[in-house]
């Protein structure tokens, strides 16, 4: 099943991992495509390589190879940092460094400010380097992402009970997953690779997270979701990874139990 106007494409994607019995091929020669504003659900048995595939797309998997492009531009023309900003991987187990929830959500913005300061230093010699020393990264990040915008996003995800001054390690697993999702969405990637972000949520909060993702897709973001829940009506297509191959189906067919033959995107 092909995507007529792909935003993101992957060709000849393979993953081989070392094991005590020798190298093991998880999958080989896979192709994938997703269009702007589309949600694709990636499903399949545990251990079939779904997370390995998403980390390959994000260029985070050292055991994977393939040819990737974003909006027709080859991944090799991006720096790794720029690619991961545009093709963002959201892990199942969130990592939230910082003293507060607000700090954790602003982290990508703080890092961007620091990167700009490094560029200023390289361009401006000693003057730029001294300017960087006096730059208040945290204040600049707050200007870029005010508390009000963070609060609005968290409230929409059912996180009205999470105070922005709360320590991240005091959050429950479900709360941490939603905070991590909020952080990623607020950075505005073109492609979001979501690895079971609703796994620890009750049905009500999972529905809120799905609504937020649908809203982001409506604004042009392409979203790939690894899911084990029943279909929620948000995805247009379903890709099943099993035995090293992808089988594609329309989401409506999947919901009614129909099957589709194995084919590439």
Automatic annotation (TrEMBL):
Coiled coil: none annotated. The keyword Nucleotide-binding applies. One of its GO terms (cellular component) is plasma membrane. Keywords: ATP-binding, Hydrolase, Nucleotide-binding. PROSITE patterns: ABC_TRANSPORTER_1, ABC_TRANSPORTER_2. Residues 8-265 form the ABC transporter domain. It is an enzyme of class 3 (hydrolase). Its EC number is 3.6.3.27. PANTHER family: IMPORT ATP-BINDING PROTEIN, TRANSPORTER, PUTATIVE-RELATED. This is ABC transporter permease.
């Amino acid at each position: 099943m092909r995507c007529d106007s792909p935003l993101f494409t992957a060709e000849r994607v393979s993953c081989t991992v070392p094991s005590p019995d020798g190298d093991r091929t998880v999958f080989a020669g896979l192709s994938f495509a997703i269009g702007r504003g589309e949600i694709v659900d990636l499903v399949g048995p545990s251990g079939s390589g779904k997370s390995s595939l998403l980390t390959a797309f994000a260029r985070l998997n050292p055991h994977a190879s393939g040819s990737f492009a974003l909006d027709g531009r080859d991944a090799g023309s991006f720096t790794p940092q720029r690619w991961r900003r545009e093709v963002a991987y959201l892990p199942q187990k969130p990592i939230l460094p910082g003293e507060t929830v607000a700090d954790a959500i602003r982290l990508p913005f703080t890092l961007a400010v620091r990167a700009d300061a490094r560029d200023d230093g390289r361009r401006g010699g000693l003057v730029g380097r001294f300017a960087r020393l006096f730059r208040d990264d945290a204040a600049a990040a707050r200007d870029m992402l005010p508390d009000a915008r963070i609060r609005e996003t968290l409230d929409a995800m059912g996180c009205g009970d999470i105070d922005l001054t709360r320590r991240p390690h005091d959050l429950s697993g479900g709360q941490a997953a939603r905070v991590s999702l909020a952080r990623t969405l607020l950075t505005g990637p073109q492609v979001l690779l979501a690895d079971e972000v609703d796994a620890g949520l009750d049905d009500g909060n999972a529905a809120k997270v799905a609504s937020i993702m649908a809203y982001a897709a409506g604004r042009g973001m392409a979203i790939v979701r690894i899911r084990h829940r029943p279909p929620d009506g948000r995805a247009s297509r379903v890709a099943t990874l099993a035995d090293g191959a992808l089988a594609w189906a329309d989401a409506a067919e999947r919901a009614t139990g129909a099957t589709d033959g194995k084919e590439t995107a």
